[in-house]
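New to this. Please check this fold:
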Amino acid sequence: MTGVSTGMIPRLPDSAWSRGAAAHLLSRAGFSGPPEEIDALHRLGPEKAVKSLLDGAAASLATTRPEGVDPVDMIAFRQAIKALDEEAARLKRREWQRQERQSQLALTQWWLERLRGKNADPVAEKLALFWHGHFATSVEKVKRSHLMWQQNDTLRREGLGDFGTLTKAIARDPAMLVWLDTDRSFRREPNENFARELLELFTLGEGHYSEGDIHEAARTFTPYKIDPRTQKFTYRKRQEISEPKTIFGQTGDFSGDDVVDLILKKPECAPFIARKLWEFYAFEKPDEKLVSHLADDFRAGGYEIRPLLETIFTSAAFYSSDAVRKQIKSPVQWVMALSRTLEIDLPPARMLLGALNGLGQVPFRPPSVKGWDGGKAWITTATLLLRYNLAAFSVGNQSVGLPLGNSGKVKDPRRFRALLAGRLPLKKIAPPETRQDPRKLVEALTDRLFQQTLPDRETAAFVSFAEARAPLDDSAVRDLLQLMMSTPQYQLT
């Protein structure tokens, strides 16, 4: 790759490929990583680096159902309830709700570990997280963790391939059928919720369809239902409306798949998706010419997602000053990057979920069908304080303000302190020879945490702090790490 363009989009020239560029790619395509991962990516060169990340993602699309996340035969369950007296039925429902809460916890913990990179590829998981925010569905309404896992599996399995195939799969997805009420849409009274969001939020954006298009599209999805025994998609032919439907000015006996095909032919679809992917991975408010070129490549490539990502990750604009360290880390990005760069495990599950809830982003629980707002919405006085407290915990300093259990108290302080102290590989992060020179230590920790050179003023402040704590024992290193992570620069990627 020598500075040529992909279509009309200039690529990053080989001469501009640097270790900082490799760090930026690893952070945006995935969730960052320790210095060794950055060095390995840098050695590949830009084209091979992007290919290696996407090859790794493609090899990590299959999942198996997490333990404890099982389908429920709703017919059998209702029959069992019906056979019980009122008090026994109440207790059985309560037990089912308790089990479902445990199942939801297990599912969320399972995905958080995958996002971290445990038995999974972070690039594949980050793309699944993008699609989760795009086709946003919440367990708060769906109620069944097994349905949420099925959708999560679909987003991962289809998310790197053809957008049309993915959209058709989501239209059939049981969690989406519950979330947007298609499971309660019937030929006599079609529910328009899914059709509306399909056009407005999932494919075209506002203003590129009519109310008539929504009404007619809704009539194509009435047969889409959930088998109550298997919890899988089923097509109820008796709910089919076999009549001509007029959508986008075209008339025919269209099916749900036909609606998606009609959408893909609309000129607004490709730029809508290309823009969302660019803003997720690069920066907000891209130039309209850039979006147009991305859309042209996307459309010409048959709406394949992987080539679009290759174009984004190899473009010069992706590595420009508009992109590098200008994106506010989402809570999930913040937690995963911290864990991966410091090479520590995630916090205990309930603590992590409590923290993510306070930070404003819990997987499987987006706030609405629009997903998460992102950007500046991630940062408030309260969420910043919680980030700082979580940073303190992560480096082994006791912190306040973290959810530590139902009582909010540490049940076993000695065990808790041992947990904190044993998490961080200090000998690797700050070996003895590095600690002999405060400036050298600051440079090493800056490279690990920020992956770029900081302004002289900030570097001087960190060096001054380190010099005041010399000789630099473990406690001083932890405090320095905590200080660095409690800065505005650390909230950016």
